[in-house]
Amino acid sequence: MDEFSLIKRYFERPSVASVQANAQLIHGIGDDCAVLEVPHNQDLVFSLDTLVEGVHFPVDVNPADLAWRVLGASVSDLAAMGATPNNFTLALTLPELSASWLQSFSENLATAAQQYQITLAGGDTTKGPLTLSVQVQGFVDKGTALLRSGALVDDVICVTGSLGDSRAGLSLLNEAISTPAHDYLLDRFYRPVPRISTGRFIRHFASSCIDISDGLLADLGHILNRSGKGANIDSRLLPLSAALREVAAENALDWALSGGEDFELCFTLSAQNWQRLEQKLKDTGHPIAITKIGVISGTLGLQIYRDAQWHKVAATGFKHFSR
Ligand code: ADP
Ligand code: MG
After folding, report:
1. Which helix (H) or strand (E) holds 182?
2. Ligand 1 mutation pick, 1, 2, 3, 7, max ligand atoms within 8 A of CB
């Protein structure tokens, strides 16, 4: 099988590409470029993510998990901007041609794409060390994309879902134990769920937003840098899952603060908008928990309340090329 029959067989199948084709996508896979009609009064929001074997995911990860992980992590960037996913392109670098690998990967990619309502519009296929790049594209109403730079003094700081689970899952990769808590944490590592509906929901309330890929402290640090503000976080308020407390009680708080890849959202909003948002969450039964964890301050730097006192913290998270 060569590159072209591979694309046709695994990625151009109707179940993968055209069944989900949306109105904006005029031409998808098969031409030199895909053609997209940009809707009137919308802004195009796009981003690119690369996953390298052994760096971003374990060697010999199963292709089903890899498909969910690469798409979930990529779509999370759209969620952080308050955007609605539309289409993505996939650059796939494979060391060898394995039909069973491709079958499982492409099927799971299609299921994930269906779930996130995003269409595979094209890509590139090459031979080399296993690497995946996904470019996602989405839309927001003109001028309404959520940015990192809008946090104001006295804004409330919130996070979605629970923190530290993915880092706990990473610590369990080589353990052969299976309990509901272990399985939940591994799932949080392998199959992060992008907070698409929450991103859209908070768009009219939030002053800034980011998705947590490098850890809460590091990513909140990006909001603070871009906004020129500081923050006070109360560690007692951090949302920790029951599974995290059960499996890793002593590490739970550190992992919630600094563990990466939960792909939850961290956002800020005025105290008044927080009240409005809380009411609206109740009224609509929004399925994702949103927890207030601190307040933006005019004093630069990040302070955290922990062990009965305030500590100054350096925003640390995962960085490539750092020692
Ligand atoms: P070109 O040589 O002009 O770049 P290719 O031969 O690489 O075109 O790709 C042919 C078509 O298949 C293009 O529409 C491209 O977007 C699509 N394609 C290639 N690889 C993939 C992939 N892994 N997933 C989805 N579409 C792909
Ligand atoms: Mg070409």
Report:
1. helix 180-190
2. 7
